[in-house]
Design goal:
A 6-stranded parallel sheet has the order 9-8-7-10-11-12, with helices on both faces. A 4-stranded parallel sheet has the order 3-4-5-6. The chain has helices at 5-20, 42-47, 64-82, 94-105, 125-136, 145-153, 167-179, 184-187, 203-206, 209-223, 234-242, 273-282, 291-300, 315-318, 329-341, 357-375, and strands at 30-31, 55-56, 86-90, 109-115, 139-142, 161-163, 196-199, 228-231, 265-268, 285-288, 304-306, 322-324. The longest helix is centred in the first third of the chain and has 19 residues, at 64-82. The protein folds into 2 domains: 5-165 and 356-375, Glycogen Phosphorylase B (Rossmann fold); 181-341, Rossmann fold (3-Layer(aba) Sandwich), CATH 3.40.50. 48% of the residues are buried. The chain is α/β, with parallel strands linked by helices. The structure holds uridine-diphosphate-N-acetylglucosamine.
């Protein structure tokens, strides 16, 4: 099951690995349609070489309850017809919890990939999704040691937890060479190490005018020293329009490839996986509130300033590439100045972030299915 942009990056290596075992494990790929714009969905299927979904639920947007309920209603008949042994869900989005709950209610086993991450902040919709999904799951695959500790503390049985590494990094390693051929740097007039990259979409950052304005003003100030490229998520773009925030940007409108030669904060449409990876790889620093980008910059050795007060991915902080700077404009500016005054950190590989996570997941799953078949 996959539904939103970060899900596609995580599902790609798992689908590829499952297809290699197509004779032993029959799989059906379901797309809930939580993300539906071609830049948020199709582009990712194409860039990551994911086969088209077998089933599309086309749920679209809505409030949390509407979206979750709609996914459940449309997913239940699919499960009743297919009668799978397991439903595999990834990440922490509404599609994740909706599909896990639908399966659990039908007494179908749930597998959660990227289990155990905790920000300990229930204000984040994703934190609620993480906790619920983990407690509905039979098999829990964790990406970092903290995930294992969190699950054990919450009373989840040790034999259900498997530390396998990070499928997001499987995708990154698989696509890095292909991404290097992306012409995005030249198209935007950018030189390696001479620009910064920005992504923002957390409701706590972009749905509150005061917070959002503070962040934008800090980015505009940093942009006076270093061109910043900001591919804008639809949720964020909606607020730029609603609150008339054009003045913060050096270019007008949403250009596909803005010429960002001079300094300033430049906006662009959301980018595909390969273009974004190429930009991230060559950025001098990254500002983000995304979870996945904290992990990707860690492996690439790119300084990441996370515009949040907490993270569910503490190993990226321990590795020294990521720093939590919150949303205070002064702190954002001084953190950026510090990064620019220092040398680039070395790429760091947390344990098992070696490109083999999907293989370990499918091996474990295969063993489980074999044991189950023997019992019947
Ligand atoms: C969702 C996830 C978040 C993830 C993010 C990645 C939840 C609770 N949140 O947040 O964890 O990091 O995806 O992008 O599941 N929209 C479009 N086109 C699209 C999709 C969305 O225009 O293809 C707009 C709609 O107006 C929608 C809004 O963006 O209402 C928010 O989309 P939604 O899926 O609800 O949450 P995200 O903010 O994308």
């Amino acid at each position: 099951m996959a539904g939103a942009r970060p899900n596609f990056v995580k599902i790609a290596p798992i689908v590829a690995e499952l297809r290699r075992h197509a004779e032993e494990i029959r799989t059906t790929l379901v797309h809930t349609g939580q993300h539906y714009d071609s830049s948020m969905s199709e582009a990712f299927f194409r860039d990551l070489d994911i086969p088209p979904p077998d089933i599309a639920l086309n749920v679209g947007s809505g409030s949390h309850a509407q979206q979750t309920a709609e996914i459940m209603q449309r997913f239940e008949p699919v499960l009743l017809e297919l009668k799978p042994d397991y439903v595999l869900v990834v990440g922490d989005v509404n599609s994740t919890v909706a599909c896990a709950l639908t399966a659990a209610k039908l007494r179908i086993g749930v597998i959660h990939v990227e289990a155990g991450l905790r920000s300990f902040d229930r204000e984040m919709p994703e934190e609620v999704n993480r906790v619920l999904t983990d407690h509905l799951s039979d098999l829990l695959f964790v990406t970092e040691e903290s995930g294992r500790r969190n699950l054990l503390r919450e009373g989840i049985a040790e034999e259900r937890i498997h530390f396998v590494g990070n499928v997001m990094i499987d995708s990154l390693r698989r696509q890095l060479a292909v991404a290097s051929r992306s012409p995005i740097l030249e198209q935007c007039g950018l030189s390696p190490q001479r620009f910064g990259l920005v992504t923002l979409h957390r409701p706590s950052n972009v749905d509150e005018p005061e917070v959002f304005l503070g962040i934008l003003s800090a980015l505009r100030t940093v942009g006076e020293r270093l061109p910043l490229l900001f591919p804008i998520h639809p949720r964020t773009q909606a607020h730029v329009i609603e609150w008339h925030l054009d003045e913060f940007f050096a270019n007008s409108g949403l250009e596909v490839n803005p010429e960002a030669k001079a300094c300033g904060l430049f906006r662009t449409v959301p980018l595909g996986y390969l273009d974004f990876l190429q930009l991230m790889q060559h950025a001098r620093l990254v500002f983000t509130d995304s979870g996945g980008i904290q992990e990707e910059t860690c492996v690439l050795g790119v300084p990441c300033l996370t515009l949040r007060h907490n993270t569910e991915r503490p190993c990226t902080i321990e590795m020294g590439t990521n720093r939590l700077v919150g949303t205070d404009p002064k702190k954002i500016i001084s953190a950026a100045e510090m990064v620019l005054a220092n040398r680039k950190p070395e790429p760091r590989l947390p344990p098992l972030w070696d490109g083999g996570a999907a293989t370990r997941i499918v091996e474990t799953l295969f063993k489980r299915l074999t044991q189950r078949a023997q019992r019947i």
